[in-house]
Amino acid sequence: MKLRSNKLRFHTISLVMAVIISTRACWAAEPPPRSLGQLNFPNSGSIEAQPHFIEGVLYLHSFEYEQARASFRRAQQIDNDFVMAYWGETMTYHQSIWGVQDQEAGKAVLRRLSSTPELKAPTPRENAYVPLFVAVRQSDVTIRGYSVAAGSGSSRTRWGSDS
After folding, report:
1. CATH number, domain at 91?
2. I need a labelling partner for 93 at 20 to 30 A (CA). Which of 17, 61, 72, 120 fits?
3. Is residue 34 part of a domain?
4. Helices 83-92 and 65-78, packing angle to 10 deg
5. pLDDT attached to residue 123
6. DSSP string spanning 95-163?
7. Do the domain assignments include residue 125?
8. In a domain, 104, yes or no
9. How confident is the model at residue 57 (pLDDT cuts 50, 70, 90)?
């Protein structure tokens, strides 16, 4: 009887210790990344750059400009001709919702992409974004002026397709 009682005590203590250790391990682990949502944004960037670009757009739409900028820059490092990754980084400097913009930083991004004013994106959908680039690079675009340029691009484009 005493042997059975000791075995039961041993198993109970072992079980409690296992629960305590596994719980502590869960508490010490990094919290799961916050879900930003999902996005279908067809573009001509390389497959390797896509996760960073999509993450950047999701952060951008969550008004997390610094995280978005870092994601777009990672996409550019992977695919340095990825026009939309430069577009995304430029957008992080035009924070219309806060009334904040850094025109010089936006222009610097565009200079890294191309030294010529004639940007040419590989698809019609991406090419619709080019007027925004040109507007930022060629003048001191106000937030209102940037919105007008964005509106002119969106009126010519169906954002859900490449046609």
Report:
1. 1.25.40
2. 120
3. no
4. 160
5. 85
6. EGGGTEE-HHHHHHHHHHH-SSS----SSHHHHTTHHHHHHHHHS---HHHHHHHHHHHHHT--TTS--
7. yes
8. yes
9. very high
Which token pair is 77? 């490092």
Assess if residue 133 is contained within a domain: yes
- Report d(CA 132, CA 151) in Å as an integer: 10
Q: Residue 60: which domain range?
A: 47-155
Residues with Cβ < 8 Å from 121, sequence gap 6 or more? Answer: 44, 83, 84, 127, 129, 130
What is the average per-residue pLDDT within 9-32? 54
Report the interhelical angle of 130-138 vs 83-92 (nearest 10°). Answer: 50
Residues 91, 110: Cα–Cα separation, whole Å:
11
Spatial CB neighbours of 67, under 8 Å, sequence gap ≥ 6: 59
Token pair 């409690």 is found at 16
